[in-house]
Amino acid sequence: MNGQQTFSDIEYSMRKRTTKREAFLDAMDECIVWDEWCALIEPYYFKGKRGRPPMGIEKMLRMYLLQVWFNLSDEGVEEAIYDSYAFRKFMGINFTECQVPDATTLLHFRRIIEDNKIGEKLFAALNKAFEEAGFIWRGGTIVDAAIIAAPSSTKNKSGKRDPEMHQTKKGSQWYFGMKAHIGVDAGTGMVHTVEVTPANVHDVDMAEKLIREDDDVVYGDSGYLGLQKRPEIRDNKNKAKIDFRINRRPSQVKTSDTYAGINWEKKIEHDKSSVRCKVEHPFLTVKQTFGYRKVAYKGLEKNRNRLLFLFSCSNILMYLRGTRRVPMPLVG
Q1: Of 61, 130, 137, 134, whose CA–CA distance to 309 is shortest?
Q2: Chain centre distance of CA 117
Q3: According to the model, what pLDDT value does residue 19 have?
Q4: Integer Cα distance of 92 and 96 in angstroms
Q5: Distance between CA 212 and CA 289 in Å, rounded?
Q6: pLDDT digits 0-9 by tens, 266-291
């Protein structure tokens, strides 16, 4: 990116404090290895043999990441870059030399990302790098799932809800949308597997896909009770040996609260939960930090690509908070 200072840069450098948004963008700008991220997209990008020259891959990737991190529409991110100094600085845009790519250009770039499964490639490459550097361990997995809501209204052009989404009941309330299933490394809390289904698919039905072949122990909430009895687990010689530490339902813990001795059953359940709670942090980052509480698009595959980018960035944030060092380049 162009390192030449503008008058705006000089003016903003005199501020007494930096906003949280700008600090976040500076940290991500420093730690992302842009050349290698761009190399994943380059084979599928426009060659520019005819028509006007295409926008640079890095500039479009930065714009796309702003859209993902701040949960903005194509038009919304274009306007936000014009409006926000922090966004403009992250993009490296100097209005005397270039302009912000328009919403249509971003749409075409996003379709390249989605059609060629760049989110999946990035997630796998980044996790491989973390694993080889010792930031993703082996031996234990925590499984969990969360519902991502979708619009349930039929007041649209087709008069129908998204056919790939479904409704499910949780507690006494009904939800319509999809479900994100993740497998998290029990040692470090980093996400190593992501699956997406309609909301009516039960958590335990997807659990086998979230478990690694060399896992020795698996943690999960009471929604995964009976996981070890399922055929896909029982018939797999590696997964059949796993120690499944699944939390029981509160009603299954029979020891009375008035018992004078140590309540060992509750102690055991508490110890399981103290490990299992690590799986909540990636969901907190995706839903709270990145604002992804509702689906962004119709269909499961586009939203899966978005989630893979989000969980990749969630892993980077966890790495930065734990080490405060610039991550290594991607591998492969």
Answers
A1: 61
A2: 15
A3: 86
A4: 12
A5: 28
A6: 888 899 999 999 999 999 999 999 99
Q: pTM of the predicted model, to two decimals?
A: 0.89
Confidence bin at 47 (pLDDT 50/70/90): confident
CA 304 to CA 215: how far, in whole Å? 25
Structure tokens at 229: 């009895």
Q: How far apart are CA 201 and CA 196, in angstroms?
A: 10
Specify the pLDDT at position 41: 96
According to DSSP, the residues that pair with 244 across neighbouring strands are 218
Question: What are the beta bridge partners of residue 167?
Answer: 176
User: How far is residue 124's CA from residue 127's CA, in Å, rounded to a whole number?
Assistant: 5
Please tell me the least confidently modeled range out of 95-99, 295-299, 316-320. Answer: 95-99
How far is C-alpha 67 from the chain's CA centre? Answer: 14
Nearest alpha-carbon partner for 292 in 95, 176, 146: 146
